[in-house]
Every structure is written in C-alpha cells, then in structure tokens.
Input
Amino acid sequence: MRVLVTGGAGYIGSHTVRHLLEYGHEVTVFDNLSKGHAASVPADILVEGSLSDSARLDHILVTLRIQAVIHFAAFAQVGESVQQPDLYYRNNVLGTFNLLDAMEKAGVRRMVFFQHLRDVWHSRIDANCRGHTSKPYQPIWPNQAHGGMDA
Ligand SMILES: NC(=O)c1ccc[n+]([C@@H]2O[C@H](COP(=O)([O-])OP(=O)(O)OC[C@H]3O[C@@H](n4cnc5c(N)ncnc54)[C@H](O)[C@@H]3O)[C@@H](O)[C@H]2O)c1
Output
C-alpha cells in the first residue's frame, strides 16, 4: 500500500516507517523537521513540508496516489503545550484539519490517527490547576493540544 506517514522523522513515526518498509509498503514521510531528524528515515522517501501548507499536502496526496495516511505530525511536549496553547492548537489541531481536508479532496479514506485525545475530549479547566478536568470525556472544550494518549 502507498502510505503517507506525517511526522515520520520523529520518534514513533520513524520506527513505524521502518516496519512499514519491512512489510513491503511504499512509504512517503511528510515532516517539517521541526522536531524530527532527516537521518531517521531513508532520504529518498522524505518530503520536507508542513501540515500548514495545504497546497503541498493536496499535491502530494494526489501525485503520489497515496492510499492511506498514518498521522504522527504534532508537537508533543505537555509542559510546552500549557505554556503556549495557541502554538499547539495551530500546529496540531489546525494541521490535522488541513490533512483531513487534503485527504477528502484526494479521496484517501484510510487513516491511523495517533495523537492526544485531549485534543477533542478535554472538557473543563480547573481555575487552580489548568489541565485537570472534572468531566474528562465531554468533547466540549479542547484546551490542550499536545500529543499523548491519556484520555
Ligand atoms: N512519544 C510518546 O511516548 C507518545 C505517546 C503517545 C502519543 N504520542 C503521540 O504520537 C505523536 C508522535 O509523537 P513522537 O513522540 O514521535 O513526537 P516527535 O516530536 O518525535 O515526532 C513528531 C514529528 O512531527 C513533526 N511535525 C510536527 N509538526 C509538524 C507539522 N506541522 N508538519 C509536519 N511535521 C510536523 C516533527 O518534526 C516530528 O518529526 C504525537 O502526536 C504524540 O503526542 C507520543
């Protein structure tokens, strides 16, 4: 299968890429190298680009005839996400919307999405301790947009 791995030059992504290649998939890594390392993946499958660049995403999905996307591209530092929520929201949430739009346009219907579920499930901010929540599973207040899987 022709698979696009966003964030594929990062920690989890690069291991996933190695396994996908071992299993014979045609892999393209899409990563802006803001946190990842080019040396983590074979140079000939790396496309340097950002999720904020919708036109680039559209182009890649269509021209490479991508059949599935595994989405790891995100900022993933919990502390930083609390200090700079706008940066995280923009990169992780809006970036994911751009990717989903591009997939819809290109007719790509298969996706593995590996990000922090608090992006959508976090509900209420405790005034004294930002990040705690009294109703953790109500999807009404996406206040933390870092990576992880604790929801
Ligand atoms: N590492 C963990 O233990 C862990 C656990 C659970 C969930 N996760 C989630 O898995 C995902 C990947 O985590 P990781 O530890 O591999 O992080 P990582 O920082 O090593 O990898 C993320 C990659 O995404 C790239 N990236 C970031 N923003 C981008 C953008 N706008 N456009 C293109 N590329 C972009 C970075 O350059 C980096 O290579 C994150 O969503 C993280 O929250 C990680």
User: Anything to note?
Assistant: The two ends are 31 Å apart (CA to CA). The chain has five helices and five strands.
